[in-house]
Design goal:
There is one protein chain. With 411 residues, the protein is of the alpha/beta class. Helix content is 32%, strand content 23%. Helix 1 links the parallel strand 1 and strand 2. The protein has two domains: 175 residues, 3-Layer(bba) Sandwich (FAD/NAD(P)-binding domain), CATH 3.50.50.60; 165 residues. The chain contains 15 helices and 20 strands.
């Protein structure tokens, strides 16, 4: 008779863990929301008799740094298609799109603006010097590193900090606290320090719901709208308490964010209390809409990702141009905007969502290194993209680590 495992949370980490663990265990997947998938959130729209699947959370991955996610898609026979990854920055009197030389100077006045030309020079310098960071520089946060090496205001505020804020869905002021070594490592691995030789980015054909449905079809026990209120860990079992039942399992995989994990543990160990409380998250509102006033003024400056400069540096203001990213028909422009700066008209909003994203500071890096101190103890295992960089590949890797701890070999 197979041992029983409760997997709590149906984001990429929980889904992957449940999918692979089902081979050796009797798995039950618990999800508090009425929708399975976490940040894999596909909206099924009908616009002018066109049925469109539009993603609003997880959207893109690439062929270089997502090997385990790609293996998962292959095992599910889920297809992906190439997409364009371009990035723009715009403000009241400023805009550019870094896709090519023509779009970089979408605003032709940038050609004669000394500050803009200095920004380009600093970009080239940063790309050249970043890989050589050593010594005490490795201990600096991003803001301190940029100040020490005298990078210009234009480069910091209109290139590097907006790009990092867009990647990690957090405010530019928080990015300055991000360890420079971690930022550079991520940029390097994702080809962001190269003008050429960048990875090919892709989207899931039909939206991320395509892989979610394939995994759910393989799981015999999926319980949506079933929040786990409490986990009571005994010597020989784990009691999973929901609003309606208390059920006994041999093990539990906690695949929700650390604050939720800590809240549902009846008796967190000192190690769990210490590690999980170090991890912080930021909240972002996302709007799926059709209001193109949020985009740069010049169509040439429209990119796949469009960062909006604003006075509130505490949140990232960013718009994804979904027609370009997901190859949607051009008749109706569709956008997903994080943290609308007050531009989008209410009558053009199709849906409003809220997503939590991990905030990476030195405490987060300390906690990540302590995963082995708490996972696999007290019949409890921890998965989640936040145990690494916060992306889909990281969620899959975290699930694979749990599978290894539980003796399940994933080919």
């Amino acid at each position: 008779m197979k041992k029983r495992i409760a997997v709590v949370g149906s984001g990429i980490s929980g889904l992957t863990a449940a999918y692979y663990l089902r081979r050796n265990y009797d798995v039950a997947l618990f999800e508090a929301e009425d929708r399975i998938g976490g940040h894999s959130h596909t909206h099924e729209l009908e616009i002018y008799e066109n049925r469109l699947n539009v993603d609003s959370g997880f959207i893109v991955f690439n062929d270089r740094t997502y090997p385990n996610f790609i293996k998962l898609l292959d095992s599910l026979d889920v297809q992906a298609t190439p997409t364009e990854m371009s990035f723009s920055v715009s403000g009241r009197d400023f805009e550019y799109n870094g896709h090519n030389l023509n779009t970089l100077f979408a605003d032709r006045t940038n050609i004669v603006r000394p500050a803009f030309l200095r920004m380009i020079k600093d970009i080239l310098r940063f790309n050249r010097e970043a890989r050589k960071i050593s010594g005490t520089d490795l201990l600096l946060d991003t803001g301190s590193y940029l100040k020490k090496h005298q990078y210009g205001e234009e480069f910091c505020n209109r290139y590097l900090l907006p790009m990092a804020a867009a990647i990690w869905s957090t405010g530019t002021n928080l990015i300055t606290e991000f360890p420079i070594s971690a930022l550079v490592s991520f940029f390097d691995h994702h080809g962001l320090l190269d003008l050429r030789n960048r990875p090919q980015w892709r989207v899931v054909k039909g939206g991320s719901v395509a892989y979610v449905r394939k995994i759910v079809a393989e799981l015999p026990d999926v319980r949506s709208s079933t929040p786990v209120i409490r986990l009571e860990r005994k010597e020989h079992s784990v009691q999973v308490v929901t609003p309606d039942t208390t059920e006994s399992f041999d093990y539990v995989v906690i695949a929700v964010h650390s604050p939720e994990a800590l809240e549902m543990l009846e008796d967190p160990s000192p190690e769990e209390q210490g590690v999980l409380s170090l991890m912080k998250f930021t909240s972002n509102e996302a709007k799926l809409h059709t209001d193109d006033r949020i985009m740069p003024r010049r169509p040439l400056a429209w990119a796949s990702w469009n960062y909006h400069l604003n006075r509130d540096s505490g949140q990232a203001a960013l718009t994804y141009f979904m027609n370009r990213l997901q190859h949607l028909p051009p008749e109706t422009p569709l956008f997903v905007t994080l943290n609308d700066p007050g531009v989008i008209s209410d009558d053009k909003v199709l849906s409003v969502m809220h997503y939590e994203h991990p905030f990476y500071d030195k405490d987060m890096l300390i906690a990540q290194k302590a995963w082995g101190q708490i996972s696999g103890k007290h019949r409890t295992y921890y998965a989640g993209a936040y145990w690494r960089n916060g992306f889909h590949e990281d969620g899959v890797v975290s699930a694979l680590r749990v599978c290894e701890q539980l003796g399940v070999e994933v080919c």
